[in-house]
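My current task is to audit a protein record that another person submitted. Thanks in advance; the entry in question is below:
***
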Amino acid sequence: MKNKQKLKAGVAKVNVTPVLGTVMNGDFVNHYAQRKHSDLFAKALVLSNKETTIAFAVVDICMMDKDFVDQVKKDINDSLGISKEHIIISSTHTHGAPSIAGLLLASLDVVYRNKLAKNIVEAVRLAKENLKDAKFAYGSVDAPEHLLCRRYLMQDDYTAINPVTGLADKIKTNPGGAEDKIIKSIAPVDPELSFIAVKSIDDEWISLLANYSLHYVGDWPDGTITSDYFGEFSKAIQEGLNANEEFLGIMTNGTSGDVNIWDFNNPGRYPKEFHKKSEFIGKDLAHKIVEMASQLEWNTSPSLFGEYKDVIVKTRKPSKEELPLFEEVLEQANYETILSLNDETRKQIYAREQLLLSEYPDEIAFPIQVLKIGDCTIGALGGEFFSETGLNLKKEAGSNPYFTITIANGYVGYVPPKHEIANGGYETWRCRTSFLAEDAEELISNQLKALIN
């Protein structure tokens, strides 16, 4: 019977660290790799029984677009026979990595993009070759202390300008420099640190894949190659579990589109030296898991299942009447000289976004997916979703273990709930990284809930 089939598991990683000078994104403008703090990897975990094979590929990169991921999945299917609906390919969302797609004024690096695709396929191939008899467990622990909603209600005498509309937003994202005007952050966070654990049948650690809804840390100078707290966690969990060199620790990004660890009300809570905050958080999260690892219940024959669906979603674009106004801004802008952000340079950057967005289709295919390992369900969404979405999906799953991997199988930028779009703030500003229709989050969530069930 299916649920009695013995589990096999394999892991592998491929170094994807770029050469210095490679284009990097994750900011409003181009940066170039100037120095390396830590290596970047494409990491793969493959689980298999006689009937089904599933694969996770997690890459130290800011984002990967759907066309890119679809081609990688096709290459994996062609060469390894793993079907598209059984593969989740996700980005950690480190902002210290090369650019494989243009974001705002940051351009793509074509050479790196082509190389990365081959490296991901290679990581999955090696993991599949390394399959051995294994057992599986699920666990979770709360870690609320590193999570802050970055969207703030401000005092009445503070004005948060929306660079697209020119009007005032109701809330401000990341109000650095206006700390004395903060009233409160406006939304809950998801404190759960979830993970799946894999050991060999003779009790050697193979892998631990975790999920946490913290955006990224970003405690380093521009132009630094770094895996951020995702990489720090991976090192710390291997050490904490006393695992051998073949072990693979993986951190995935949860529903963290409105969450970071920039504490504007208490800026002294973390070390200020470069990379020390991400190191502290990575080690602390690993420690929490290590403390409860002995309590895990292991299963040598979990069922494996996967399902994938493209949901058709409408887009949010400027009207024809608006375009001449944005063209006027472009004519007066000097993009060569934009090195820092202020109200005027944001206006210029987002005016360009409107012209580019006007050529987008009226609707797109948005990827949603679930993988099930025994009673544990893992959802995948191709964008940056708020904690509210993740909490609602966990509520739908009920008592069954569940978490959501975001920035997976594609990337459309932010997908805020409709009421948050009405509030405004950086994540909602209409551009190529926030362009789905106002009801998109509800539509996508409902479709994913159907797959969960």
Observations:
- The CA atoms of residues 228 and 405 lie 17 Å apart.
